[in-house]
Design a protein that fits this description.
The complex is a heterodimer of chains A (about 170) and B (about 425). Chain A has seven helices and seven strands. Chain A is α/β, with parallel strands linked by helices. In chain A, strand 3, helix 5 and strand 4 form a beta-alpha-beta unit. The N and C termini of chain B lie far apart (about 50 Å). In chain B, helix 2 crosses helix 5 and helix 10 packs parallel to helix 13. Chain B has two domains: about 260 residues, 2-Layer Sandwich (Aconitase, domain 3), CATH 3.30.499; about 150 residues, Aconitase, domain 3 (2-Layer Sandwich), CATH 3.30.499.10. Chain B contains 13 helices and 18 strands. The longest helix of chain B is centred in the first third of the chain and has 17 residues. The chains are: A alpha/beta (about 170), B alpha/beta (about 425).
């Protein structure tokens, strides 16, 4: 059910929420489509204009460190990103992503290069790198978090169940 | 042997989950205070509107702060403020309006108490851990659900025990200690964990503890807690909130993922260099770094004792030519006391300027954005690229003492040279 397909956009370690959603665009937080045009622009000025629906962000350790701004995962999702694959995530970014229905995968990402074509199965915990014909496994999210993701995020989860179910 | 006692994190989350918890457990917990600020509240409100209702019994516990863009520098942000006010009016939430101050300082002054579970749509919500509250930052959706239902989901974190020995020497502050600790364990050294401070904590007063807890998130931690002791009680008594005190300490046989120890006597004035909080060095080794601006304020170091420390160094002197000194008290109460005690006059006479209470330039919205290639020395908690509004500028982090001393000389200065 949750199999995703797209190209990889590679970023390094310690990508901060100021990289993802720069503070100088604070006034655009109530205009998310406009804010999304600036996603990650200090690291890659071509990202927001070139990313295609379904693409993946593939990164190193401690992705999303810093602020609690949920606008960070939200604008990545709005830009078309279908999942983020990282060696590790900062805590608040991780739960924000789950809460807004943006899948996050924790794994060794070194077998993925820029613009590789990937297929990701969230339930099976499997990444197929179609470009270099390699396959790697990851530990799927816990059943509780998968359920929030599958419900479409925490708001939809609460509306559907009448409460938080974990 | 299996540990049977509970640490602070397990104790507080157990009370709110209605059952005994252990690290790794996923629980639904009752939330005491839920807060958001003007950068995160509008999105939280839109999420609450999707849920369609907000628990009216929580009106005094759901608090919306206007502090990041206060007063508003742009029409878009003025509209966000108006949106927050009209939501609060319609749904009954509590508003802390422009001019009151920074959310984390107001939570300390008016709300936080031992044993509470406090959630905020701001990463530095962990500040209230100084009161032995389990306080943590989350996103707007989490806060929306907490405000509407009074509940949240939590994975119970493992705790790291941070044992403090001895006392900080003259000219060295809690800011130096926490920068040293983060430099030591790294910006992801405590990711998903709780830091529990222990040992000779009596040497740190509440304002110093607030600095330590505030920066726990800069090591990736979910929370940074102190036990509730006499210093906590005194602080609450001074604000007429003594009845909110209850003594909480970890059990003697509590379990921790690991224990790390620091000798405070050996801590030096410490600076975090661009663009990472864990990129630390002693201030004494950085005298070659010239600075264009000094910022004293924020939820980390905009409290009265911070302003007193800086004023003692600046009194009767002038800052170096070419340096801009920006000072911002963290709350209305602090601002008023700084006026009454003559601190504001000292800053102005020294060549500085004093902003209204709020987050000021720390988040890069207004009130002191840097030019290309400029360098700022700030008492804030974060120095990421672009944090203060310009990705082509450099941010150094330090204590209020180091900041004031550096303003006098125009380069990074070990404050022990002037105190």
């Amino acid at each position: 059910m949750m199999t995703l397909q797209g190209k990889a956009w590679r970023f390094g370690d310690s990508v901060t929420t100021d990289h993802i959603a720069p503070g100088r665009y604070f006034h655009l937080r109530s205009n998310l489509p406009e804010l999304a045009r600036h996603a990650l622009e200090d690291l890659r000025s071509d990202f927001a204009s070139e990313v295609k629906k379904g693409d993946f962000i593939v990164t190193g350790k401690n992705f999303g460190l810093g602020s609690s701004r949920e606008h960070a995962p939200t604008i990545l999702k709005l830009a078309g990103v279908s999942a983020i694959l990282a060696q590790s995530f900062a805590r608040i970014f991780f739960r924000n992503a789950v809460n807004i229905g943006l899948p996050v995968v924790i794994m060794d990402t070194t077998f993925i290069n820029e613009q590789d074509e990937l297929e990701v199965s969230l339930e099976k915990g499997l990444v197929k790198n179609i470009t270099n014909d390699r396959v790697a496994q990851f530990n799927p999210l816990s059943p509780e978090l998968l359920r929030i993701l599958q419900d479409g995020g925490l708001i939809e989860h609460v509306k559907k169940n009448g409460r938080i179910v974990v | 042997m299996e540990k049977t006692g509970q640490n602070l994190t397990e104790k507080i989350i157990s009370r709110h989950a209605g059952k005994g918890v252990r690290p790794g457990d996923m629980v639904v917990a009752d939330v005491d205070i839920a807060l958001a600020q003007d950068g995160t509240a509008p999105l939280a409100i839109r999420q609450i509107e999707k849920l369609g209702s907000c628990n009216p019994d929580r009106n005094h516990l759901n608090i919306l702060f206007m502090d990041h863009a206060s007063p508003s520098p742009r029409k878009e942000l003025a509209d966000d403020h108006a949106f927050m006010r009209s939501f609060a009016k319609e749904y009954g939430a509590t508003v802390s309006d422009v001019g009151e101050g920074i959310c984390h300082q107001l939570i300390a002054e008016k709300y936080a108490a031992p044993g509470m579970l406090i959630l905020g749509a701001d990463s530095h919500t962990c500040t209230a851990g100084a009161f032995c509250a389990f306080a943590t930052g989350m996103g707007s959706t989490d806060i929306a659900v907490a405000m509407a239902t009074g509940k949240t989901w939590l994975r119970v974190p493992e705790s790291i025990k941070v044992v403090l020995h001895g006392k900080l020497s003259n000219g060295v502050l809690a800011k130096d200690l926490i920068l040293h600790i983060i430099g030591d364990i790294g910006a992801d050294g405590a990711t998903y964990k709780a830091l529990e401070f222990s040992g000779y904590i009596d040497s740190l007063d509440m304002e110093q503890r607030l600095v330590m807890s505030n920066m726990a998130v800069e090591a990736g931690a979910k929370a940074g807690l102190f036990p509730a002791d006499n210093r906590t009680l005194t602080y609450l008594q001074e604000r007429g909130r003594a009845e909110q005190f209850n003594e909480i300490a970890p059990d003697s046989d509590a379990g921790y993922e690991k224990v790390i120890e620091y000798h405070l006597d050996s801590i030096e004035p410490t600076v975090a260099m661009p663009h990472a909080v864990d990129n630390t060095a002693p201030a004494s080794t950085l005298s070659g770094i010239s600075i264009d601006q000094v910022y004293i304020g924020t939820c980390t170091n905009g409290r009265l004792s911070d302003l007193e420390t800086a004023a003692a160094i600046l009194k009767g002197k002038r800052i170096a030519s070419g340096v801009r000194l920006v000072v911002c008290p963290a709350s209305r109460e602090i601002y008023l006391k700084a006026v009454e005690k003559g601190l504001v006059s000292i800053f102005i006479e020294a060549g500085g300027l004093v902003l209204p209470p709020g987050c000021g330039p720390c988040v890069g919205i207004h009130q002191g954005i840097l030019a290309k290639n400029e360098v700022v020395l700030s008492t804030q908690n974060r120095n990421f690229q672009g944090r203060m509004g310009n990705p082509d500028s450099s941010i150094y982090l330090a204590s209020p003492a180091t900041a004031a001393a550096s303003a006098l000389f125009g380069h990074i200065t070990d404050p022990r040279e002037v105190v």
